[in-house]
Amino acid sequence: MPPSDWAATIRRHVTSQTRLTVMTGAGISAESGIPTFRGPEGYWTVGSRSYHPQEMATVAMFRRRPDDVWQWYLHRATVCHQAAPNAGHTAIVALEALFDNRFTLITQNVDGLHLRAGNSARRTYQIHGNVFQVRCAAGCTDDLRPLPEALIGRAKTAPLTAVERELLTCPNCGDRLRPHVLWFDETYNEHHFRFQSSLDAATATDLLVIVGTSGATNLPNQVAWAVFQNGGTIIDINPTPNPFSELARQSPGGQFIQQPSGRFLPELIHEIQKIMADRTRRCP
Ligand code: OAD
Question: In the chain, is it the N or the C terminus that has fewer CB atoms within a 10 Å radius of its CB?
Answer without folding.
Answer: C
